[in-house]
Amino acid sequence: MTKRPRRNHSPEFKAKVALAAIRGERTLIELSQQFDVHPNQIKQWKDLLLEGASGVFGADAKAEPAAPIVDVKTLHAKIGELTLENDFLEGALNKAGLLGAKK
């Protein structure tokens, strides 16, 4: 018997199979034959779907991802520091003759 290569199923396919298992219209064996997936895998996907379903209706679903807090003063200070470094390096390279004509 030849070994079948490892398959990666899409999230849509997993959801489709798990929903079919939750409906209960067919047994796991029938579903495994229909979708060509091992019954244990179907059971795992079903359990994951049931476990994560509460998150759809919970308070976590309404929470929007928080935007990172930006401190404008810190950013301006960093810009000033980098400008100072660039000016210093430009002057040093000009003295050494390693920097060509100005842009």
Q: Summed up, what is this model?
A:
It contains four helices and no strands.
3D architecture notes:
Pfam families: HTH_Tnp_1 (PF01527). With 103 residues, the chain is mainly alpha-helical. It has 2 domains: 11-55; 69-103. 63% of the residues lie in helices and 0% in strands. The chain is built from 4 helices and no strands. The N and C termini lie far apart (70 Å). The mean pLDDT is 87.
Topology of helices and strands:
Blueprint: H1 11-23, H2 28-35, H3 39-57, H4 72-96
Protein name: Transposase
InterPro entries: Transposase_8 (IPR002514), Trp_repressor/repl_initiator (IPR010921)
GO molecular function: sequence-specific DNA binding; transposase activity
SSE string: HHHH
Count of individual helical segments = 4
Radius of gyration: 30 Å
- Please indicate the percent range of residues in DSSP E strands (runs of 2 or more): under 5%
- Domain count: 2
Form type: elongated
Spans with pLDDT under 50 lasting ≥5 residues? none
- Class computed from helices, strands and strand pairing: mainly alpha
The major pleated sheet works out as: none
Count of distinct strands: 0
Helix % is 55-70%
Oligomer: single chain
* Overall pLDDT confidence: 87
